[in-house]
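Collaborator request, handled under Task 6.
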Amino acid sequence: MSDDEAFLAAEKTVRGELRWTTRPNDTAVGHAVVAIGAIDSGEIRVIVLATVERRWMLVLKSGTRTVLEWDFVPDGEVRRHWNAPPRPDGFPAEDRSPIHEHVWHHGAKLSRPIDGQDDSSLRQAFYSFCERATISAGESFREPPQTQLQLER
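Structure tokens returned to the collaborator:
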């Protein structure tokens, strides 16, 4: 098991709550420290582009390394990730899904679809991400300071 896989599997907790900062390009970034036991071991980041509906990234970092990333891309936005062989089971050669995760396997960034998140809110996605990453998040989620674009359906 690699260091990243071990970190992902370890029981972690969020210390405090998401603290939001804004950037000039209508982006808000939420940060929270992640601890293993009493030791601060990483960070969870939530990145929201306010001018695009459901354009989110949820990122787990261990030090400076990204260990897990979930991307939510609006329907209709063209995107494509290639997973070069050899790749583990469950990772397609090509991933075009608008909601997908990235993990690192032997140094290679891989992508695969995430099921069950099509209608989730940012709050729900945050807690699902934390569950996937073995993080006990408690009541740490806070909404971003900017209202995100909502399209009528």
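The cover message to the collaborator said: "The CA atoms of residues 120 and 128 lie 9 Å apart. The mean pLDDT is 92. Please let us know whether this matches your experimental observations."
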